Amino acid sequence: MAMAAALLLLLLAAPVIYATNHTVGGSSGWDTGVNYTAWASGQTFTVGDYLVFTYGSTHSVDQVTQTNYDNCGTSNPTKSYSGGSNTIALTTSGSMYFLCPTIGHCSQGMKLAISVVSNSGSTSPPSNSSSPSPPPPPRNSSSSSPSGATSKFCSMSHLMVGLVLGFGMMFALVV
Ligand SMILES: *[C@@H]1O[C@H](CO)[C@@H](O)[C@H](O)[C@H]1NC(C)=O
Ligand SMILES: *[C@@H]1O[C@H](CO)[C@@H](O)[C@H](O)[C@H]1NC(C)=O
Ligand SMILES: *[C@@H]1O[C@H](CO)[C@@H](O)[C@H](O)[C@H]1NC(C)=O
Ligand SMILES: *[C@@H]1O[C@H](CO)[C@@H](O)[C@H](O)[C@H]1NC(C)=O
Ligand SMILES: [Cu+2]
Fold first, then answer.
1. Domain total in the chain
2. What is the pTM of this model?
3. Whose CA is nearest to atom 4 of ligand 1?
4. Which ligand is closest in space to the CA of residue 147?
5. How does pLDDT run across 14-37, given as a tens digit for each residue?
6. Which residues have C-beta within 8 Å of that of residue 49, sequence separation ≥ 6?
7. What DSSP state is assigned to residue 147?
């Protein structure tokens, strides 16, 4: 029974380890006056992750071509999203471009370019962090959910930590 609880814990923890929700703009969300180039440079977008847009009623989200991104062109978006909250799955590697089609908003900074990298290759070496890695999450077993997680949990060491925590909890329950 304690065993089952521990296994369940590991199963619940697994998706958290491998998929990241990237809340666009962090706590600022999708709005004017935010530098999304700066925001994106602090993120690693991996296939399987999600891009989450949250915004007020004056905004929406268009996925566009690179040309339209460069020129703030709003015609013929590749895809349009609206409603205030959109979760977009990053299914393929490569570049993706977004902007807010509300007049004037793109030129006020509401444009986002991201580069999605594949996480293929079980034989690939562990990612040597050339980019500044975000601070490690607080190690707190009572923390329920990493809200708006912007950090990446896919390293082997984090997996080990998860396993150790899981087994630790199992023993705690047994004793
Ligand atoms: C990402 O968002 C989805 C939908 O809001 C949620 O079900 C999932 O638990 C989130 N994942 C993480 C790692 O925060
Ligand atoms: C946004 O941030 C990037 C990188 O930090 C910087 O190069 C760029 O000049 C900034 N853009 C604006 C409009 O401030
Ligand atoms: C990762 O490390 C390898 C070998 O140590 C090196 O060849 C490669 O350029 C590095 N990649 C990055 C992105 O730093
Ligand atoms: C864990 O988090 C709770 C509430 O967020 C806090 O009260 C507690 O001190 C934390 N424990 C550790 C070990 O950080
Ligand atoms: Cu807008």
1. 2
2. 0.58
3. 87
4. 1
5. 444 578 999 999 999 999 999 999
6. 19, 20, 21, 22, 90, 116
7. T
